[in-house]
Design goal:
Largest sheet: none
Number of helices: 10
CATH topology of the largest domain: Tetracycline Repressor, domain 2
Strand content: under 5%
Number of domains: 2
CATH class of the largest domain: Mainly Alpha
Number of strands: 0
Order of helices and strands: HHHHHHHHHH
Helix content: 55-70%
CATH architecture of the largest domain: Orthogonal Bundle
Distance between the termini: 32 Å
Low-confidence stretches: 4-24
CATH superfamily of the largest domain: Tetracycline Repressor, domain 2
Length: 215
């Protein structure tokens, strides 16, 4: 659930000018890193296209390999399974969510931004989200989103919590992340949506803020 297949840029869509060419002294590690990113990006794109075409459950690893034109050994050098590829999809495509707040940034603001970004991301890929939620892929990706949001909540708010409050904070973080994802799932599955995306996002943000104040 990361980007619509129709929005995916074609590989090699632009040729580097002479001023942009990499110099010959580029370290080998840089070249390897780029190959890794290219491979992972191709696999994630292939998975997205196939999910939209035939549904998550009917997509096999071999289907992904055939679409991406990548060998089986290469796939398993990067991912243990189709589920792991799905979970890592946003990162493979350069989409960053659930970042820790930078120095000086209020924690509440960072959390609100992360939740808003999650809702916008899913809203922009609604067809893919619905396709995944109709199958096992929905629980896989939503569990991943929940766990990442939970980790962000706990890490952010634990900075100002007393040691004896950390157990309660962990419970609140998990419950808040689960509730936010429940709101998101309900919004995705309702056709037409029960409320505007922005309203659902704000509801999740307010609920999290209220809960975390108890920590």
């Amino acid at each position: 659930m990361y980007t619509d297949a129709g929005d995916l840029p074609e590989e090699g869509a632009r040729t580097l000018s002479s001023s942009e060419q990499l110099p010959p002294e580029v370290p080998k590690s840089v070249s390897v890193d780029r190959r890794v990113r290219k491979t992972r990006r191709a696999l994630s794109r292939a998975l997205i296209e196939l999910v939209l075409e035939k549904g998550y459950e009917d997509v096999s690893v071999q289907d992904i390999l055939d679409r991406a034109d990548i060998g089986r050994s290469t796939f398993y050098a990067h991912f243990e399974s189709k589920e792991m590829l799905l979970v890592n999809g946003p990162r493979n495509l350069g989409i960053t969510m659930f970042e820790l707040p930078s120095d000086g940034q209020p924690g509440d603001l960072a959390i609100s931004g992360a939740v808003a970004g999650l809702f916008v991301h899913v809203g922009e890929n609604l067809e893919l989200a619905r396709a995944l939620l109709r199958a096992k892929g929905g629980s896989v990706i939503m569990d991943s989103f929940r766990d990442q949001l939970e980790g962000l909540l706990f890490t952010t708010y634990s900075k100002r919590a007393q040691p004896e409050d950390r157990a309660a904070l962990a419970v609140l973080a998990r419950a808040s992340a689960q509730s936010a994802c429940t709101i998101l799932i309900a919004w995705v599955q309702e056709e037409p949506p029960m409320m505007p995306l922005e309203t659902a996002s704000e509801l999740a943000q307010r609920m999290i803020q209220s809960a975390m104040r108890l920590a």
